[in-house]
Amino acid sequence: MDAWFAQYVDAYYLRIMVLIGINIILALGLNLITGVTGQLSMGHAGFMSIGAYTAAILTLHYGTSFVLALLSGSLMAAFFGFIIGIPTLRLEGDYLAMVTIGFAEIIRVFFLNFELGGKAVGLYGMQQYTTFSMVFILVILVVVLNWQLLKSRYGRALYAIRENEIAAEACGVNTTGMKVAAFTMGSFLAGLAGGLYSHYMGYIAPQDFGFMRSIEILNMVVLGGMGSIPGVMLGAAVLTVLPEMLRIVADYRLLFYGALLVILMIFRPNGIMGDMRLYDLKQRLRTKEVKTCRS
Amino acid sequence: MYKIRNKSIALLLIMALLFIIPGCGQKGSAGSSEDVIKLGFLGAKTGPVANYGIPGEKGMKLAIEELNAKGGILGKKVEGIYEDNKGDSAEIASIATKYITRDKVVAMVGDPCTGLTKVAADIAQKNGVVIFSPGATGPGVVEIGDYVFRNTLLDVFAVPAVVDWMMKEKGWTNFAIITSLNNGYSTALTPVFKEAINKKGGKIVLEDSINDGETDFTAQVTKLKRSGADVLVFTGYYTEAALIMNEVKKQNFDITLVGGDGLYGQDLAKLGKDAVEEKVIFYCGFSSDQPSPETEAFLKKYREKYGEEPDMFSAQYYDAVMILAKAMEDAKSTDPKVFKNELAKLKDYLGVSGKTTFLPNREPVKSPVCLITVKDGKFKLLDKIEVNVQ
């Protein structure tokens, strides 16, 4: 399928599409934590690097198959998400943000000094196992699972925690347990995206997963619309494509990029599709007539 | 009602933006034809390694201007494309792909960093486009394939010559080595120094480490003072080197710091002031002092055009473009498949950054190695060492 695809789409577009796919998986992971459950995490790139390094080390040094490496990377990230989540998720808001930043820094510095990970030089020579069709299928899978989760009882419990944690607890939601679960799932997706990323780029280094990377992922979620699956997907796509499109303005690229973000946030403070769900869109179309009559 | 319309308009606008703008880009590149030779610039114009990319871009622009003034290559005009990769590996991969598939470049010049060069070299090799790095000194670059070249002073050739110089000219035999652990350049350079010192019969009396970004080196310098070393080899960057020398001055003893071209930054003299005066020596492939006739001409043109001094990167980017042009002229072809073979045969090329020869494995040997020190707050050439091809 990929060979067929490559005939019709030029490699530059294909590359951007793969990166959009990887970013969608990343952003959907963070959306579970920050968008849906309302826990401000600013260390998503840390979990991504765990997945990226684990998968890369497995395929490079141990000759593991890619699927197994990808799965191990995701599980490793999930495991760390779980371990970190238990103590930290008792914190809220700014405090949690600080702890997650700190944790992401710890991971980065760890990889800087990690012999197997090539230290500051990073890892190089991973085969390009990640293909467009693979990313495409995984994105669909992740979206469907996310969608199913969010419309289930658990998903509504997560939304409830965001809206009012005390009320949710009073209604019998195990808030700590649910938060840790959301954190673990989000980390799993970050690890998955990391594994895909490292086997697409063929080169990873600790500085690829710095603080700015975490902020970029957070941007995708906030810009697209916290808690909305189509919104986050759009946010990830826009923020991946935007820097590429802005190559036209050459040296002023980053300036325009920043300005566009500011403009978007002024006009759409809740993100492009704040809290819009797929079935909300349908609902909206149906209620449109009713509303028109009233006004 | 009003709200919904607003929302859908915003959405429509964003969608339109998404699809229209890349379309525009495509139209622009469709106009390119066979009679223009395109070269892609790889390097950072913003971010932490922009200090290497910005002068590089200037050197490349100067070279292309000159080629066009002379009538281009094989009668075709040369065009440079200059994207900013921010020193980011995802960014350089996108740019390399864009250069190859969109702009249809015949060769890419860059990147100054080893890791980034490898990312781009992989893509270049797969697509059969020449990549020529004027700065990647680390291992494992030309091994990627026969489209990958570099023109820079390699540590493996320079360091033995420098160690030899230290032992013979200066009579230093007891070495202390300090590595910066979170700096990839430093962790790669230290083993090269160690091997050279051991081979030449020197003695390593102290091995210590720091991290980039630290500011207090009291502990390391105290150990250094006690170790009885004749000279300190520091493999990191200029900021830390200046801070170490400040501490040495504070503890009031006399030792010279020797390092690689990572110390080639104007901040070395600014931060170190009189603590680094004639107390820091580093090697690199380019110096504007005692220029050869080729370098002299380049210096004049560069100063005229930009009103500033060129550095190693401007010279090496300039040379890279000129070497590529020569290979295309010699091969009478602008097809990377053809002229890459001519490129590999390069021997004793006199460029503005010294003499370059490619070994059979395409590794460059550059001569001479310039030893540079700080004098009156400026970089001054201390000595030139010839490097022989074994």
Description:
- The complex is a heterodimer of chains A (295) and B (390).
- Chain A has a two-stranded antiparallel sheet.
- Chain A has helices at residues 2-8, 11-36, 44-61, 66-88, 93-112, 132-151, 153-163, 165-170, 175-201, 211-224, 229-245, 253-267, 278-294, and strands spanning 123-124, 203-204.
- The longest helix of chain A is centred in the middle third of the chain and has 27 residues, at 175-201.
- Chain A has 295 residues and is an all-alpha fold.
- Chain A contains 13 helices and two strands; from the N terminus they run H-H-H-H-H-E-H-H-H-H-E-H-H-H-H.
- Chain A is globular.
- Chain A has a domain at 9-210.
- Chain A starts with a helix and ends with a helix.
- Chain B is α/β, with parallel strands linked by helices and 390 residues long.
- Chain B folds into two domains: 36-153 and 290-358, Response regulator (Rossmann fold, 3-Layer(aba) Sandwich), CATH 3.40.50; 156-284 and 372-385, 3-Layer(aba) Sandwich (Rossmann fold), CATH 3.40.50.2300.
- Chain B has a seven-stranded mixed β-sheet with strand order 7-6-8-9-10-14-15, with helices on both faces.
- The longest helix of chain B is centred in the N-terminal third of the chain and has 29 residues, at 2-30.
Q: Please estimate the helix content of chain A.
A: over 70%
Structural class determined from secondary elements of chain B: alpha/beta
So how many helices of chain B? 12
What's the multimeric state?
A: heterodimer
Task: Enumerate the strands of the largest sheet of chain A in spatial order, edge to edge or round the barrel.
Answer: 1-2
User: What is the arithmetic mean of pLDDT of chain B?
Assistant: 84
Q: What's the CATH superfamily of the largest domain in chain B, by name? A: Response regulator
Could you give the order of the helices and strands of chain B? HEHEHEHEEHEHEHEHEHEHHHEEEEE
The strand order across the widest sheet of chain B is 7-6-8-9-10-14-15
